[in-house]
Specification:
Number of strands: 13
Order of helices and strands: EHHEHEHEHEHEHEEHHHEEHEEEH
Radius of gyration: 21 Å
Distance between the termini: 45 Å
Bound molecules: pyridoxal-5'-phosphate
Strand order of the largest sheet: 2-8-7-6-5-3-4
Shape: globular
Largest sheet: 7 strands, mixed
Structural class: alpha/beta
């Protein structure tokens, strides 16, 4: 990992790179992350070049290549296993529409999944596929409950790395092993974890990980990407085919319609990509590599620990698990006395930005927040 001058700068030093910290307490990275100055600078440079007509497809393709290598390195994949998409749902739909389902096949998800990890599978019900939603208990998705739902006809399990409404972190390694022992594919919606925790797709052994960049990665919207295990690429039929799905080598013959598919995950990208978004994604990940993703996770742990202790002290109910393998950057809570909308409103008035999800209040600090931010949040809570 590149490290500034061979020595890590203290993590607090990076806060000044986030302009949002000047006048807001942004505790809403699970909804929308804010851009750092280096990311905003990379986007501005891209816009300037394009505004001045300093445009070349070769240059843009190099930017895409760099983004692909950077994303792959970040999760220990190879570049050929990364496809750029629009969002999480786009990635999961590529898988849902590409596998050869038979009537009676079963897919298992949890009942607390975000819609992006429900609709792509639900869309297969009309083809005779059965979608099983495992009930969560005490804001947890129990591995035992997932195991109980697995039957001989189960072909795929798809879960969020971190559940958006409870902050519960699923154990990807255990789930992948459980699935593979039964010949089942394991698919992950990674968006609430990637950028907050280290992910090694080889070590965890997941088959597919679809994510996007505007939350914990602190990069632009519309910049989705997915990992597809190399041996699975050929088993996913291409639903959307276009100029970029095929390898044209040096040929400039745009009327040759017999070009071969890319042998790797680029075949899932039918056309020109969100180049500007990818420039932002590269800058965001390169900055995280400099900071160190382990240090980022530790910092999020310290900040969320502080928030949880303060919430409990003030009589709030924290519903997110804080167990060692289950905690995440999302802390979800309620008050026994005060309406969630009222809490949200009061904090908003003080420029403290948080989320409401159904009847739950959620904060999601990132590494650029500090303990003063948490203190201001706690102070502003209605008693
Ligand atoms: C768990 C989870 N998955 C996916 C998404 C986003 O899905 P998409 O990128 O398809 O809009 C969100 C939040 O917006 C989320 O919390």
């Amino acid at each position: 990992m590149p490290v500034t001058g061979g020595v890590h700068k203290p993590i607090e030093a990076y806060r000044r790179l986030y302009p949002v910290t000047a006048d807001k307490v942004w505790l809403n990275n699970a909804s929308m992350g804010t851009l750092s100055a280096p990311v905003a600078g990379a986007l501005r440079a891209y816009i300037k070049r394009h505004a001045l007509g300093d445009i070349s497809i070769e240059h843009d393709l190099k930017l895409v290549q760099r983004a692909r290598e950077t994303a792959a390195r970040f999760i220990n994949a190879s570049p050929g296993e990364i496809a750029f998409t629009k969002n999480v749902a786009d990635g999961l739909n590529i898988v849902a529409q590409g596998l050869d389902w038979k009537p009676g096949d079963r897919i298992v998800i949890a009942d607390q999944e975000f819609p992006a990890n429900v609709y792509p599978w639900q869309n297969l019900v009309k083809r005779g596929v059965e979608l099983v939603k495992v009930a969560s208990r005490d804001s947890r998705v129990a591995v035992e409950a997932i195991i109980e739902a697995l039957e001989p006809r189960t072909r795929l399990v798809s879960l969020s790395w971190v559940e958006f409404s409870t902050g519960f972190r699923n154990d990807l390694k255990v789930l992948a092993k459980t699935c593979h022992e039964r010949g089942i594919l394991f698919c992950v919606d990674g968006i609430q974890g990637v950028g907050a925790f280290p992910l090694d797709v080889r070590e965890t052994d997941v088959d597919v990980m679809a994510t996007s960049s505007h939350k914990w990665l602190l990069a632009p919207t519309g910049t989705g990407w997915m990992y597809v295990r190399e041996s699975l690429i050929d088993k996913i039929a291409i639903s959307y085919l276009g100029q970029s799905s095929v390898s044209r080598g040096k040929s400039l013959d745009y009327l040759d319609f017999d070009l071969p598919l890319w042998p790797d995950a680029r075949r899932f990208e039918p056309g020109i990509l969100n180049y500007m978004g990818l420039v932002g994604l590269t800058a965001a990940i390169e900055l995280f590599e400099e900071v160190g993703i382990d240090r980022i996770a530790d910092r999020i742990k310290a900040l969320t620990d502080g928030a949880v202790a303060g919430l409990l002290d003030r009589g709030y109910d924290v519903i997110s698990s804080r167990n060692s393998a289950e905690w995440s950057g999302c802390v979800c809570f309620r008050s026994p006395k005060i309406e969630p909308a009222e809490i949200h409103r009061r904090l908003g008035e003080r420029n403290i930005i948080i989320s409401l999800r159904n009847d739950i209040v959620r904060i999601s600090p990132h590494y650029y927040n500090d303990h003063d931010d948490i203190g201001r949040f706690l102070e502003a809570l209605p008693r």
